[in-house]
């Protein structure tokens, strides 16, 4: 079982109204295959390796959304740090069979994330390859409260970077306020970053809440966006070039949002 660095993103899952429809959508989009994990969940596999999970929502009031989990070797201590730093614990530490122990929390801006203490499942068996997780970032309106929160809870080393699109004018209106997170004990910067924080600007609807956006690596961003539309999903941010490749923000056919990233050709 490969271990994950403390505080690194180690797992993603999506809560959906219709599990079977989700399997059809993501199976065709990313080439995933599935195996049952209980009555209401399915593990997603890419080339036979764990990449994510799909779950049927137990309550229609739950959001249809992708969730990300961060690795911890002491989930009780992590939950205590969440509270001390001004966050909210939504789900107290809860065993997930032999897989491990999970908890859910929200940062001071309201963005929800998970904590994962590994049992016999560390998390991803494949990442940073086409059809698998490659990045996550929190989008918030409360950076002055959120930035110190993630440093205190996860020990992240932070670096402010220019993440602005390459094909728009370099003006204050288009510039992105972006910060990367590197694990404890590393030198902060793009080479070590495992996630980040982006500020929601006035250009977005006022009702858009703080949230995590997780990315999947793809071989062709434009083709993936077209496939999402063909499968009944939506393109919420069309493909555009950023310093790290070509990305798009998409929704599946049930409304769960995610992003894709095509890495630049080296």
UniProtKB/TrEMBL annotation:
Region annotated Disordered, chain positions: 167-192
Pfam families, per the entry: Glyoxalase
PROSITE patterns: VOC
Chain segments annotated as coiled-coil in the UniProt record: none
InterPro entries: Anthracycline_SecMetBiosynth (IPR052164), Glyas_Bleomycin-R_OHBP_Dase (IPR029068), Glyas_Fos-R_dOase_dom (IPR004360), VOC_core (IPR037523)
Xref: Gene3D superfamilies: 2,3-Dihydroxybiphenyl 1,2-Dioxygenase, domain 1
Domain (VOC) ranges: 8-118, 132-263
Protein name: VOC family protein
Native species: Streptomyces drozdowiczii
Phylogenetic classification of the source organism: Bacteria, Bacillati, Actinomycetota, Actinomycetes, Kitasatosporales
């Amino acid at each position: 079982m490969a271990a994950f660095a403390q505080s690194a993103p180690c797992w993603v899952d999506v809560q959906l109204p219709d599990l079977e429809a989700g399997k059809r959508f993501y199976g065709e989009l990313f080439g995933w295959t599935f195996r049952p994990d209980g009555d209401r969940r399915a593990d997603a596999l890419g080339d036979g390796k764990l990449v994510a999970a799909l779950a049927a929502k137990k309550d229609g009031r739950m959001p249809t959304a992708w969730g990300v989990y961060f690795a911890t070797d002491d989930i009780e201590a992590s939950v205590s740090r969440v509270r001390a730093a001004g966050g909210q614990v939504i789900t107290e530490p809860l065993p997930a069979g032999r897989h491990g122990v999970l908890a859910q929390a929200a940062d001071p801006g309201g963005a929800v994330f998970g904590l994962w203490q590994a049992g016999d499942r560390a998390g991803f068996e494949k990442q940073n390859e086409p059809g698998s997780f490659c990045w996550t970032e929190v989008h918030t309106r409360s950076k002055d409260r959120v930035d110190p929160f993630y440093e205190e809870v996860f020990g992240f080393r932070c670096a402010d970077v220019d993440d602005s699109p390459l094909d728009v004018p370099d003006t204050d209106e288009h510039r992105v306020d972006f910060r990367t997170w590197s694990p404890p004990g590393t030198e902060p910067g793009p080479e070590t970053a495992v996630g980040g924080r982006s500020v929601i600007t006035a250009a977005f609807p006022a009702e858009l809440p703080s949230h995590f956006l997780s990315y999947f690596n793809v071989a062709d961003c434009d083709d993936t966006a077209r496939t999402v539309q063909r499968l009944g999903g939506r393109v919420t941010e069309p493909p555009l070039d950023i310093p790290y490749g070509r990305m798009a923000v998409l929704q599946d056919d049930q409304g769960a949002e995610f992003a894709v990233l095509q890495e630049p050709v080296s």
